[in-house]
Amino acid sequence: MTDTAFNSLKLHPDLLKNIESLGYQSMTEIQAQSLPAILQGKDVIAQGKTGSGKTAAFGLGLLNKLDVKKFRIQTLVLCPTRELADQVAVELRKLARTIHNIKILTLCGGVPIGKQIDSLYHGAHIIVGTPGRIEDHLNRGTLTFEHVDTFVLDEADRMLEMGFQSAIDAVTDVLPTARQTLLFSATYPDKIEAISRKIMQNPLMVKVEASH
Ligand code: ADP
Ligand code: MG
Fold this sequence. Notes:
By secondary structure, the chain is α/β, with parallel strands linked by helices.
């Protein structure tokens, strides 16, 4: 049996305290199966239905690793749509409540680019965005990723369905190769397998059928 107690993990005490105050009593199945490996720095592919708690699985991993004193972009999370990116940012901010001065920035299409460039000028620890807009910033030179050590592809199957393959490739090309890559998806079509072979190293595969 997998241990589902959050305190069985090597999580920072502040994060554990916050999980408790959020009322999360135990890990969901996908969290229990993926978090130990994520916290060890491994690449992980996690497949599970909507509502299975995937955001906290990668969120706790990346927050536990992040050094808030180093004010530079350490994490990039790609999402298929602005709505999903906003949801991920809300969940990450909730999980990060006890980490003071953490800056999480969303960069999505449909928002004036000038405002985003101003926000980028002020810096961030975590970027959550859509592949097209992130690629746009890279092309303009308004965004660089030399200190990113965690790369998350959330809802990877949807991103590929929406035609983001080439934008994902362009973004991945400029990320440091020494990084942890986490891929989350509801389904696992051949295209996902192909991309994971290209951008991940010896990933652990986790698959959860039911939502809990
Ligand atoms: P998914 O991305 O797999 O569709 P989410 O990450 O959006 O799912 O999580 C669904 C909901 O479950 C969110 O409201 C989240 O706050 C909540 N949640 C996540 N993990 C736990 C947990 N361990 N215990 C209770 N609620 C949780
Ligand atoms: Mg999700």
